[in-house]
Amino acid sequence: MSKYIAIVIALVVVGSAFFINISAPKPDGNVGGMGLMLPSLSFSLSNIRMPSLVAKPLPPEGVQAWKTFEQYRTFAQEGNLDGVKSLSHQVSETCANPATFAECQVLMNNVVVFTENFREEDFKNVFFDERQIVMFTDPTETAEGDSLAQVILFFTRRESGEPKVLGMRFCFKMKSDEEKNCFSGGPATRDLDGNGWWDSVESLFYK
Description:
23% of the residues lie in helices and 25% in strands. With 207 residues, it is an alpha+beta fold.
């Protein structure tokens, strides 16, 4: 099994602010509640060097998904919860409950902080069908130079085809790993249970 740590940022719509999905021996550190401490990774967004090469044009589905994400981010920056909900696949209990609106505002602020350096041209890899869209960066060397980082954006689609924001994943792999990508887009591997939802997309749904 490839060693990697996938850090899922739920944006606003999935439960609490952070989910940690570890598919390798657990690193030194502690993950709990709203805290995120991974000292063995020295994790911070500034440690990820986003690629700056000229990217190929996105397909229309990718362009539409990115526009949706940008509008989602704008709504989050404005504290416009109704706007965020209108572009979300699902809404967390925190943001659905008026009594916890202050906590929801914290989640919306997290969206802005974690995505402020994202650029459309970096998310040049796009997979899609009638139900879902996945956009992700190329694996990129971290500032420390000992691992590769990849950012993945997940969307579902309305019956009309319009994207809805589902979630985001930061994935780290060792440079020595044979498989560098964290997303498997091949038809034979992306939907192992055959229900029409890709496994990586379905893993972000409420249970």
